[in-house]
Specification:
- Two copies of one chain form a homodimer.
- Chain A is an alpha/beta fold.
- Helix content of chain A is 33%, strand content 22%.
- The first copy, chain A, has 14 helices and 16 strands.
- The first copy, chain A, has helices at residues 4-20, 26-38, 44-54, 63-78, 137-141, 166-176, 178-184, 224-235, 288-306, 336-344, 378-387, 407-411, 426-429, 442-460, and strands spanning 82-95, 99-105, 109-111, 113-115, 127-134, 152-155, 189-193, 219-222, 241-246, 249-263, 268-278, 314-321, 352-357, 365-369, 393-394, 418-421.
- Chain A has an eight-stranded mixed beta sheet with strand order 3-2-9-5-6-7-8-4.
- In chain A, strand 2 (99-105) and strand 3 form a beta hairpin.
- In chain A, helix 1 packs antiparallel against helix 2 (26-38), helix 2 (26-38) packs parallel to helix 11 (378-387) and helix 11 runs antiparallel to helix 14 (442-460).
- Residues 1-23 and 470-476 of chain A have low confidence and may be disordered.
- Chain A binds chain B through residues 49-50, 53-57, 63-64, 67, 103, 106-110, 112, 199-202, 224-225, 228-229, 232-233, 236, 238, 283-286, 432-434, 436-439, and chain B through 49-50, 53-57, 63-64, 67, 103, 106-110, 112, 199-202, 224-225, 228-229, 232-233, 236, 238, 283-286, 432-434, 436-439.
Chain lengths: 476, 476
């Protein structure tokens, strides 16, 4: 990994100086923004520190999420943003309740587990059954109907560590569809080896999927060492039984909300560059890296732009989405904050010129993907001149989507960019109680702010049409 | 850190070959033992794997501890040891029960904590109070009587990481004496920042001390990130209140046990080299590194010696102690397995020629400390010739003690040796739920077995008097 300190030296020395002679160009201002962020003149770390400390976990629809949104409004106003307001929307919330797991045979041992999001509760006294282990989710799906009657199905697939987080996608179906597939074969409950790359006794929760308005059976993530233990007991020839309890519940008619703040463009304010991150978090950690740092990065980047002597031509809009983590019983089922925004702002979406989302932790940006329309043009070349000293290369493929929250806007035609972050260690912590401030690497956080501030400035202070499906004239 | 692979190459190549020409000497046999262990021909990993998998946590006095002792007897007999038997003794056991912690003001946030060993329960509905933070235990002890009435005292000292584990000793008083000192000043409960060097949401439990037969108030270890969170809320100017519940209980008249196995000496069998480790463990992990690997190391080392064509002159005795982790209401208060052994074998202790204990995880041995009587003599020189290729240097000071379990024997005059292990990462895991098999580094485990097998052979196949207070004639 490239050292952020090296990046800082390169940026401040080589590029900063070289471009200081041309202060009036948009690219030179991007360089200044980048270097200010690297020098630590951003609000990112104090933002994520206070957010994750003061409110801790911020599950969608919870008091903590509401209070964090109020706090964000006050902070964004104090930072000088325009048009700061909350847009609320209704959701069905999910509350974990007390839960426990235990191996009951061949001996008694406690299990570290966490109900998956939207899991129904167990009966009050818990439930117990023999564990049937499937090495992969595909093998569970190949099991015969009725073959799991009275049993507890377990998918033991271990998530693969990868810089781009590809292991998460490869394991994802086992979490969202596993309960349904196990229930169809008669299972009492469903256990999933955590979608996590660590080896700690911390389970990785995450949402499942409602089918016909319900999640059919209680479902839990086991920590990696607990999944190992069950597999080893099985390998010793033992029949493993476990007891599971969960007091999870649903709250109908809860409210979540998006928080909006603008840096109003000086010339074409109706044209919006939309930056997204989410304010809600899972309930066991404190939402520091998922997604406190994402909110910090986009707020800090926009704040640097806001503080320039001259605003960009287009509006930069920050949206701190609510209710990103949890599924909903009714369609569209996910990204409720994103859908609420796209629905409410439907008429404005044609003038949303570009969007990106920061929701992959704190570690450094290593790659830029732009919309196909500009992937090879002058805009891309300028952006990479500014970003490469940060250790950012051009992606091989243009961006087609940008994340969950801005997904509905992208589906509605808003072009997407990606500042891909190094996810090598992201899934050690993701969706666990371990998502706490101490995991934030401040130097890498500032590198993110630098990349976002520079790129967003270049896009907002331009008239580039990111929507065009052929490269515009003169782009090469 | 010296690479174990390099050690292996050095040992097999340079030393193994050089000494192969003199097979009849005791030192040459020590070299063979060392190299067999490095080649992986030991029972250590399968031992710790099955022990920690089959029985999981083994709290003193629990069914799991009893069953693990029965299993150990069967395995030790199958491995060909002599005199394999159990020696039981009564204890007061402590059972965690359900427990929880929550910040209740300024907002609600869950806390990750663990009752300290022997903590009394809270009232059934829990207890709640304002947290008073002390940076160090000394500052708590300087607080005025009555100054903590109705409050919850918290000691926030962060344990220091050190190769030799010195940070543990520096923080230890805060754990064993903290509840008593806080109670004397009126506190409702006592919170301790975990004695651990990690930053995970896993609390490090550990024993407190009975005073007049009781632990006065409920006491808990907070995970490091939780202690950080409370400190940061305080720094934001907030008054922090927490709610604590614990359903801990005591079991009078429980039984624990030591498991004993010998390699009977061929000439002076009444002379014993005593090797100790403990079979009990804390209740949240599976006792893999504390002290499953210790038991594995001494069993594997003794097994290598047992399988030699010629037994050593003296007896090698393995004792897998029970009830090492927990305090007891009555004197001597600790090391009940060690005291039970010393009491029952009192008449034999004068012919226990040397003792050592393995209870510091799995990582490599880096230093040998011998009794003062032999620290500079021919025995030490021979031992270091064999051990240095493993990366083991001579300690600057002779050994005065060797650990908790063999402590009572050492107090009764048995000379001690230390094979000091690298404790740099030990306290990341120690006394947490994270003490699981995946933390065991197999190469370093085998290096330990190599060092123990070689050193114990040299001591047992000799007539060296480790007790003598002056160097014996000819030792130089």
């Amino acid at each position: 990994m490239r050292s952020p300190s090296l990046c800082l030296a390169l940026a401040a020395g080589l590029f900063g100086t070289a471009h200081a002679a041309a202060p009036a160009t948009s690219e030179a201002i991007a360089v200044q923004l980048r270097d200010r962020a690297l020098a630590g003149h951003t609000v990112a770390y104090p933002w994520v520190s206070e957010l994750s400390t003061r409110f801790g976990p911020r599950p969608a629809g919870s008091d903590n999420e509401h209070q964090a949104a109020q706090w964000a409004v006050a902070r964004l106003k104090a930072l000088g943003f325009d048009n700061v307001h909350i847009e609320s929307f209704p959701i069905t919330a999910w509350v974990r309740g007390s839960e426990s797991g235990q191996i009951t045979a061949p001996g008694r041992q406690p299990l570290t587990l966490a109900a998956l999001g939207e899991s129904p509760p167990t009966p009050a006294g818990g439930l117990e059954g023999e564990v049937v282990i499937f090495p992969t989710f595909e093998e569970l799906k190949a099991a015969a109907p009725g073959s799991l009657t009275g049993k507890i199905a377990m998918v033991a697939l271990r998530m693969v560590r990868a810089q781009d987080g590809a292991g998460y996608g490869a394991a994802f179906a086992g979490r969202v569809d596993g309960p349904q597939e196990a229930a169809q074969r008669g299972a009492l409950a469903y256990l999933l080896r955590s979608m996590g790359t660590d080896s700690h006794r911390l389970a990785h929760t995450g949402t499942t999927r409602y089918v016909d308005g319900r999640v059919p059976i209680p479902c839990f993530a086991l920590s990696n060492p607990d999944a190992d233990q069950i597999e080893r007991l099985h390998a010793l020839g033992e029949t493993v039984r476990v007891r599971l309890t969960s007091g999870a519940s649903y709250v109908e008619g809860a409210q979540s909300q998006n928080v909006i703040a603008d840096v109003r463009g000086r010339e074409r304010a109706q044209e919006v560059v939309l930056l997204g991150a989410h304010l809600d978090s899972w309930d066991q950690g404190t939402g520091a890296i998922d997604d406190g740092t994402g909110t910090a990065i986009i707020v800090a980047a926009a704040k640097l732009i806001r503080d320039l002597p001259q605003k960009p031509e287009r509006t930069v809009r920050v949206v701190l989405f609510g209710s990103e983590e949890v599924a909903q019983p009714l369609p569209p089922g996910s990204a409720f904050g994103g859908h609420a925004y796209a629905d409410r702002h439907q008429s404005e979406l044609p003038s949303h010129v570009l969007t990106g989302e920061s929701d992959f932790g704190t570690d450094r940006v290593y790659e830029l993907a732009l919309p196909a329309a500009v992937a090879d043009g002058a805009f891309a070349k300028s952006a990479l001149r500014v970003l490469q000293p940060l250790g950012v290369l051009s992606a091989r493929q243009p961006a087609e989507d940008a994340g969950t929250d801005v997904g509905p806007a992208v589906e509605a035609g808003v072009p997407a960019f990606l500042l891909r972050q190094d996810g090598t260690r992201y899934f050690d912590i993701h969706h666990t109680a371990d998502d706490t401030l101490d995991k934030v690497d401040r130097e890498q956080l500032e590198q993110n702010v630098a990349a976002w501030a520079a790129l967003v400035w270049l896009a907002a202070d331009s008239d580039v049409d990111f929507r065009a499906h052929a490269a515009p004239p003169g782009a090469h």
